[in-house]
Amino acid sequence: DGNTFVYTPIDRDFRSWKRYRGGRAQDVWTYDLVNDTAKRLTDNRATDHQPMWVGDRVYFVSDRNGQKLNLYGISPDGGAATQLTNFDDFDILWPSAGASAIVFEKGGRIWRFDPASAVAKEIPITVQSDRPEARPRMVQAGGFVESMGISPGGERALFGARGELFTAPAKHGAPRNISHT
Q1: Cβ distance 160 to 145 under 8 Å?
Q2: pTM
């Protein structure tokens, strides 16, 4: 309605503290600008933080399950919070709400939570590359020698490096690639 906002009154600049259960653990509150009143929505020993309002629900991140940060939802009137994601591999980080969805980072990947269906899906992101490591280029083979041998008369040496065979004279001259694969 534009008259109420959701917030956490305690600053939390120690985000990396896992499963913090002290006096600075955050709870989620609402503040009514018209009536000049604050209302606590959560009261939990765990840290409830990064509240967001989407539609008619308040969403926040919490580690109240004792393990990973997951997404929870609660009515702006209060009541019991509902755990909406059950990730046990990585924490939900940096959630951001839009008009009809919440996006967040989890395990180095971007996810989208749809409040209407209560489903979180990974957003496939592909970064196109020109694959510079696959381009033809000159490489000094000396650091990649895998095998070697000497000719029966000792005039030449044979080396295997980077999938190629090279022969080199014992005294003077340049090595030659004899396989050209």
Answers
A1: yes
A2: 0.69
In this prediction, residue 13 carries a pLDDT of 63
Question: HSE-up of 35 (CA within 13 Å, CB side)?
Answer: 8
Number of neighbours of residue 142 by Cβ within 10 angstroms: 10
Q: Are 31 and 9 in contact (CB under 8 A)?
A: no
What domain range is 157 assigned to? 132-177
Mark whether 116 and 137 lie in a shared domain.
no
| Domain assignment of residue 160, yes or no | yes
In the chain the beta strands, taken as DSSP E runs, fall at: 4-7, 29-32, 37-40, 48-54, 57-62, 70-74, 82-83, 93-97, 102-106, 109-114, 119-122, 145-150, 156-161, 164-169, 176-177
